[in-house]
Amino acid sequence: MPYRPKTTIEQWRILQAVVDAGGYAQAADLLNKSQSSLNHAVAKLQSMLGVELLEVKGRKAFLTEAGEVMLRRSRMVTQQIEDLERLADTIDKGWEPEIRIAVELAYPKQYLYRALQTFYPQSRGSRVQIIDSVLTGTAEIIQEKRADLVITGQVPRGFLGEPLCITRFVPVIGSQHPIASQGKVELAELSQQLQIVIRDTAQKPQEQSGWLKSEQRWTVDNFYEAIEILQLGLGFCWLPDFSVQAGLHDGSLQLVDLASGGEKLAPMALLSPYEEQLGPGSRLLRQCILAAHTNEQSKEIACTINS
């Protein structure tokens, strides 16, 4: 006889929601279901398997050792189901009506805009949604597959990216900052200054870059806000060199002359979180982005040869 599953995909999704939300009440709000229905679904899941997956301590539910193993495997199964349904949707609709592209804030967007200029005449009316993301927020989008294309400075394990360019981060202060005329600055001394940082867009940010060493930090949403604060003579910030060219040119900003470690490099890459289900419009836009970088590199090579 063919094997008949004892459990359902819905039961596993409910278990995942209870764990991710930290309890039945929170998961009930998230799923718009009653708490009793979630309790019943998980209890039935455990009963059918004959394995205890969760134990409740106080108001929170915790995974058992067996539950951790089963949950990890269940996420793979539910993701495969989602990918399968997305593939069917792509096959059924053909050219996608909307393309979502998540872009790391540290990526120089002029390349993307050139690509969109090439893409537009062939876009067949597809809407394009550009999502700005920062640090682990970009990795989160990739892992949760919330965009068709992603430009990132950190390629998560298990994914492959097409290299695009390298962003150079430099330490910047306003020309009115007290250390602006000091000359060489030690990194330890800089860490004593107010640091302006860009907000990580992840739901659960992780400070992994090693740049956030200052005790006093102000957090802003984008480079423009950071630059405006710097121009008042307040704090320092690690910023992409392309974002501070105007300020360096007009003298309102200046580079911190670090005794060592004066720049940080972030390689940018283009990837698709679900390659097999990528629609024709997204594939075309990806080609346009890659071509924008290839054309720029060709120009740089030509200039070198001519000089």
TrEMBL record:
Gene3D superfamilies in the cross-refs: 3.40.190.290, Winged helix-like DNA-binding domain superfamily/Winged helix DNA-binding domain
Domain HTH lysR-type: 7-64
Residue ranges of coiled coil: none
The keyword Cell wall biogenesis/degradation is assigned to this record: no
The keyword DNA damage belongs to this UniProt entry's keyword annotation: no
SUPFAM superfamilies, alphabetized: Periplasmic binding protein-like II, Winged helix' DNA-binding domain
InterPro entries on file: LysR_HTH_N, LysR_subst-bd, WH-like_DNA-bd_sf, WH_DNA-bd_sf
Keywords, alphabetical: DNA-binding, Transcription, Transcription regulation
Lineage: superkingdom: Bacteria
Family under the similarity heading: Belongs to the LysR transcriptional regulatory family.
Protein name, entry field: LysR family transcriptional regulator
Organism: Alkalimonas delamerensis
